[in-house]
Specification:
The protein has 819 residues and is α+β, with helices and mostly antiparallel strands. The protein contains 13 helices and 42 strands. Strands 10, 11, 12, 13, 14, 15, 16 and 17 form an 8-stranded antiparallel β-sheet that branches. The N terminus and C terminus are likely disordered.
Length: 819
């Protein structure tokens, strides 16, 4: 009999409610646990199967689904017994009445983490416990190296501060009265030293409070008294100097978007026993800090500016500080690609970091020895680039045990680079597999080689089935052996993986199409994995949609694929209404084995349990013709779903958010296939990008970023027109629902207003739902508006794809500007 992977937690659910200090008195042998778990697991499975019904997943249930805090690391205790992690339940987001709190709340918590709690779970029994118990917003847990304390950040005292939970006493206390700068990124703004007595941390600059930091970005807070406002001069002046033709271009320009000021920080050392704070670096726009393995130095990467004429090319500087002498100095300036994690060598004598040269070739620099300030730079081959497909959290490179060789992923191969020789050598490839990520040991510096036999464990994806798992790769011969491969998606990066102190166990986050993320454990010597946490038992009551991979050729013959989320209770041969979820430039086929409900309101199981199929197409885009590329790639995928007998050709809709909203508008202009469309927070006019400076949908975005124009509107006037949906709205024959938050700082609400007024002028069927005080992502909207959003989208598709009239009570009362 096979043991259900979740059954241990079922057996010990009673133990979960015991006080932690009583847990040690519960004597349950592993063998008894497994036997009892198997028996109860089989019974529970049978009962769950009987209770599971083919019924719509209620919107309220979907929005209450617990999720792991985004970009917040999990942490495994040194003894391998306890996992600490962040969980977010139905978040109580506030409407953005004041735009100054669009990134950070008034208490200094990142808006994306509001309502976060710190949980711990036992790796053997699965028992779990909410440590912070919904008091404030809590994030960034990390065990001390000695396992006695768990540190985390919380605004429970009205401002973001470092807190400590003592395991032995089960008590919490503030580690310091100083205020943390939660800024961005917010993964973990601190690191322990190896003696467990000190924490190196990012604080607000001395003498500055949170409102002072926000003043740097948004200006002084407006006074409520209108007369006081009238008595003050209120003017914003921006200046651009004329550069004579032929004069050298300035290397660095200021960032007109002041959001980088949110990074402004001092770096300090907190003595957790004395509750004393010593600041060792000041006024840095800090993005990374990293303590050396011997805790002698801290490396810091901070933002310094932008390359003139290229708003997308950011520049950084690397600084070093001695934790013994408090001596601080800048080691390297004007670095590109500084958003990469800096990496100490295991012996603490070198620091590795990645840059991009003036010729756009990728380089790796080694600062060695650290007290000389001289860096040695290796230029990688022209076609070599470390993997960045999975964002900052992914692990671009790791040292071997000696600190002489770096391992990294390039394309579908594992490579190594000699730090002394500069030799770049291919180590291994796995046929029909893509290397997704390297796995680090607990110091986050070295490659995980669990058995001491020169073989590493790596995360991979099978190219045909898109199943993900783990392979053992011999670093000398390149031979590989599969350990585990399942229809799952494993979260990428150091934040979502942790290796035990003895290097025999890996904890990681994984999800599937019918279950959200949970923590699993891999023991490579056994070759099996087991589930530790069960965060959402309510989903067992509903029959959810399953997924299928489909393949097609683009109009120009390119091989493409996509994932189809089949309706719950799908019957082969029956034709269903199809919704196309589109986002140009993305390979959405990877949602095949992914729970796509982390966004709550965009949980496509809400549609699948209501009888819809959902297509997630790959839509690769080139430069200069994104709309042409969208029609070339997506429309054949829709035709394939129809040819397979899954989709009813007369009942096809489309939905997209942000650049996906742009993509949806573009496609309905160039195809009569779609009978209903929903565009959320989408851009309609590429020329508008010149109105918005700096980050987001601005000049850099449209010229050399996601907008893909390849240059300015003066260079490519026709290209800007051809790829702005605004100029082809007269072709639209599809009813369109436009949805936008009026406090959106990424894509201004004026974009949807422009689309609405234009479509109305043209006599087209269009509705604009404008949500007051809401930002760019509906996942962060207030609960009431999220419920209305879901009901509105479902009713729109029901009306045009099922012929249903909106049901009484199917939606909350409309907001003032909804229609």
């Amino acid at each position: 009999m096979t043991e259900p992977r979740w059954c241990k937690s079922m057996v010990l659910s009673a133990v979960e409610r015991l006080p932690l200090k009583c847990k040690g008195t519960v004597k349950v042998t592993c063998k008894i646990v497994r036997v009892c778990a198997c028996i109860l697991g089989v019974v529970a499975s049978a009962v769950a199967g009987q209770e599971q019904q083919l019924k719509p997943l209620p919107i309220e249930e979907a929005l209450k689904i617990r999720s792991f805090l985004p970009r917040v690391p999990i942490s495994l205790s040194p003894d391998g017994q306890w996992l600490a992690y962040g969980i977010q339940e139905a978040a109580k987001f506030a409407a953005l009445d004041d735009i100054r709190y669009s990134t950070l709340t008034q208490t200094g918590a990142p808006n994306a983490l509001v309502g976060g709690d710190i949980w711990i779970a036992n790796t053997h029994t699965g028992q779990s416990r909410n440590l912070t118990n919904r008091e404030g917003t809590n994030w960034a847990p990390a065990w001390s190296p000695d396992g006695r304390h768990l540190a985390f950040v919380s605004d429970r005292g009205g401002k973001p501060q470092l807190w400590l939970w003592e395991k032995s006493s089960d008590k919490m206390r503030r580690a310091s009265d100083d205020v943390i700068n939660p800024g961005l990124p917010f993964e973990r703004p601190y690191e322990w030293t190896r003696d467990s007595k000190h924490i190196v941390i990012r604080l607000l600059p001395e003498g500055m409070n949170l409102e002072g930091l926000l003043d740097l970005v948004y200006g002084p807070r407006q006074l409520p008294d209108s007369q006081s406002k009238m008595s003050q001069l209120r003017v914003n002046v921006q200046k651009s100097e004329v550069i004579p033709i032929g004069a050298p271009q300035p290397q660095i320009t200021a960032n007109l978007d002041k959001s980088d000021q949110l990074l402004l920080s001092d770096v300090a050392v907190i003595d957790i026993q004395k509750a004393e704070t010593i600041r060792i670096a000041r006024q840095l726009r800090l993005i990374w800090l990293s303590v050396s393995p011997d805790s002698s130095h801290v490396g810091m990467m901070s933002y310094s500016g932008q390359v003139a004429g290229d708003k997308q090319q950011l520049l950084w500087e690397l600084s070093l500080a001695s934790l013994a002498t408090r001596q601080f100095g800048v080691a390297a300036r004007n670095l590109s690609s500084g958003n990469r994690r800096i990496l100490w060598s295991p012996d603490s004598n070198r620091l590795a970091y990645e840059t991009v040269g003036n010729d756009h070739k990728h380089q790796i620099s080694f600062l060695s020895p650290i007290d000389s300030g001289k860096a040695r730079t290796l230029t990688l081959p022209s076609d070599f680039e470390t993997s960045d497909s999975f964002g900052i959290g992914a692990t671009p490179w790791l040292w071997d045990g000696t600190g002489q060789t770096l391992y990294m992923i390039n394309g579908n191969a594992l490579w190594k680079i000699g730090s002394a020789t500069g030799e770049v050598k291919r180590v291994a490839e796995i046929p029909s597999h893509t290397f997704l990520d390297l796995i680090a040991v607990r110091d986050n510096l070295r490659l995980w080689v669990p058995f001491g036999d020169g073989a590493a464990i790596v995360l991979t994806r099978e190219d045909r089935t898109l199943q993900e798992g783990f392979y053992r790769v011999d670093l000398t011969t390149g031979e590989s052996t599969k350990i585990l491969e399942e229809p799952q998606t494993v979260s990428i990066g150091l934040k979502d993986m942790e290796v035990s102190e003895d290097r025999k166990m890996l904890t990681y986050l994984a999800e599937g199409v019918q279950h959200p993320k949970d923590i699993w454990i891999l023991e490579p010597d056994v070759g099996t994995s087991r589930q530790v946490t069960i965060t959402n038992t309510v989903l067992r009551n509903y029959e959810l949609g399953s997924s299928r991979l489909v393949r097609w050729k683009s109009i120009d013959g390119q091989d493409l694929q996509g994932a189809i989320l089949l309706p719950a209770g799908y019957k082969e041969g029956e034709h269903y209404p199809l919704i196309v979820y589109v986002y140009g430039g993305s390979l959405l086929s990877t949602t095949l084995n992914k729970w796509n409900g982390d966004n709550g309101v965009l949980n496509m199981q809400l549609l699948a349990t209501r009888g819809y199929a959902v297509l997630f197409p790959d839509a690769p885009l080139g430069v200069g013709e994104p709309i042409g590329d969208l029609t070339n790639t997506v429309l054949p995928g829709v035709a394939k779903a129809i040819d397979l007998g899954i989709a009813d050709p007369e009942r096809v809709g489309i939905i997209g958010q942000s650049y996906g909203g742009y993509s949806a508008l573009a496609l309905v202009e160039h195809s009569k296939q779609f009978k209903a469309a929903v565009s959320i927070s989408g851009i309609v006019n590429l020329f508008s990008s010149y109105e918005k400076p700096g980050f987001g949908v601005g000049i850099g975005w449209v010229e050399n970023g996601q907008g893909r124009m390849g240059g300015s509107m003066w260079q490519y006037r026709d290209r800007f027109i051809e790829n702005s949906p605004l100029f082809y709205l007269d072709r639209v024959q599809t009813p369109i629902l436009l949805i936008h938050g009026d406090a959106d700082q990424t894509v201004p609400v004026s974009e949807s207003r422009m689309a609405f007024q234009s479509l109305r002028r043209l006599g087209k069927e269009v509705t604009l739902a404008e949500y007051q005080g809401e930002g760019h992502a509906p996942a962060r909207w207030t609960y009431r508006n999220q419920v209305d959003f879901c009901n509105r989208v479902i009713a729109w598709f029901d009306k045009y794809l099922k012929g249903d009239s909106p049901r009484q009570g199917s939606s909350l009362p409309l907001s003032r500007n909804s229609e």
